[in-house]
Specification:
The protein has a single domain (about 20-150), classed as Thiol Ester Dehydrase, Chain A. Helices cover about 25% and strands about 35% of the residues. It has helices spanning about 20-35, 40, 75-90; strands at about 45-50, 55-60, 95-105, 115-125, 130-135, 140-150.
Length: about 160
């Protein structure tokens, strides 16, 4: 898959359903956002999947991402989690930004590790949302837990008119 590709959702045979429309929108929003997201691209992040309120991204830890302890700098782990958070909370096509975020580091990551961040919406109401992102390595070992708080601002990612 190319860096800019967003995988299609599995076909349910009901392309006209509200769920299919919401999935298609989430994928379109992710493609637009990733095209503009030079930071995630520069770090080699790839979108594995997106859905309404959900995102999964990967990133390989490069040699230039390790710190003086020969482990992945926490800022890179945070950035992977934060990017995953951004794709999950913007998946409805409402411009949404981070209001806050916190991370707990559970184990070190090392050069050559493939980190996967899985972000899930926990609550979305009004202008705010709460998202949990779990980061693990290629062996499924937990690396970090991130919790992000989102805030919806004016506009849409796609540029479509908004009724909000």
């Amino acid at each position: 898959m190319s860096d800019r590709a967003v995988p299609a959702a599995p076909s349910t045979g009901e392309d006209a359903s509200p769920d299919a429309a919401a999935q298609a929108l989430a994928e379109r929003v992710a493609a637009i956002m990733f095209e503009r997201d030079r930071a995630s691209q520069a770090l080699g992040m790839r979108i594995v999947s997106v859905a309404p309120g959900f995102a999964e991204l990967t990133m390989v830890v490069r040699d230039d991402m390790v710190n003086g302890h020969a482990i992945c700098h926490g800022g890179f782990v945070f950035t992977l989690a934060d990017s995953t958070f951004a794709f999950a909370c913007n998946s409805y096509d409402d411009n949404t930004v981070a209001q806050g975020g916190a991370i707990d580091f559970l184990a070190p990551a090392h050069a050559g590790d493939t980190l996967t961040a899985v972000g899930r919406e926990r609550r979305r109401a009004g202008r705010t949302g709460l998202y949990d992102i779990e980061v693990h390595n290629q062996r499924g070992e937990p690396i970090a837990l991130f919790r992000g708080r989102s805030y919806r601002i004016k506009g849409t990612v796609t540029g479509a008119p908004s009724d909000r």
